[in-house]
Amino acid sequence: MAWDTARTKQLLLDAAVEEFAEHGPEGARVARVAARAGVNKERIYQYFGGKDRLFGAVLAAELAGLAAAVPLSAEQAGDLGDYAGRVHDYHLAHPHFSRLLAWEGLQHGAQGDGGAVAAEAERAAHYAEKVRAVAAAQDAGALTRDADAARLTYAVIALVNAWFMLPQVARLLLSAVPDPRPAGDRDALVLLVRRLTSNGTG
């Protein structure tokens, strides 16, 4: 019976998502990934070359999943509030994703600026597509030009992710607000992003 390589790789990736989300790239162990997947750990080295490259494959796959589920065309970029709301919904359904990014940020920050990140070329290309969409929306007059397209894109991504990476801060802040308006986190996020990115001429 032929070995199902594609299925084995997917089992390892699925198991690695959980392992890295729980323990981060430093604390994760290939033996635990293999055990979760029910696969010999030597397959990790055979298919991915080791833990660091497995983490890169996980992040690349997760970003591809987000891009497929929440596309950002130039037309869609004209309403970055709506985009932020859709990304918010994706994070609610996939809570491990923001944890992976947070773990990587902690590790990367400890290494100092300039260090390579996992799957850097693929991820840079992914983000470049978003920046081009935002730039096109700016050219069309739909978005502010107070910041360049890359920084505007980063601000929106950072704001959405902070909602999930800093839940303790949100709890402490919101507990002091008897009647928060808008009442929902998603509605507040959409409103704030629209205010942040509007060109102010509408």
UniProtKB/TrEMBL annotation:
Portion annotated as DNA-binding: 29-48
Keywords for the protein's UniProt record, in alphabetical order: DNA-binding
Keyword Nuclease belongs to the record: no
Residue ranges occupied by any HTH tetR-type domain in the UniProt entry: 6-66
Residues making up the signal peptide according to the UniProt record: none
InterPro entries reported for this sequence: Homeodomain-like_sf, HTH-type_TetR-like_transc_reg, HTH_TetR, Sco4008_C, Tet_transcr_reg_TetR-rel_C_sf
Pfam families: TetR_C_21 (PF17926), TetR_N (PF00440)
Keyword DNA-binding: yes
UniProt-recorded name of the protein: TetR family transcriptional regulator
Source organism of the structure: Actinomadura parmotrematis
Phylogenetic classification of the source organism: Bacteria, Bacillati, Actinomycetota, Actinomycetes, Streptosporangiales
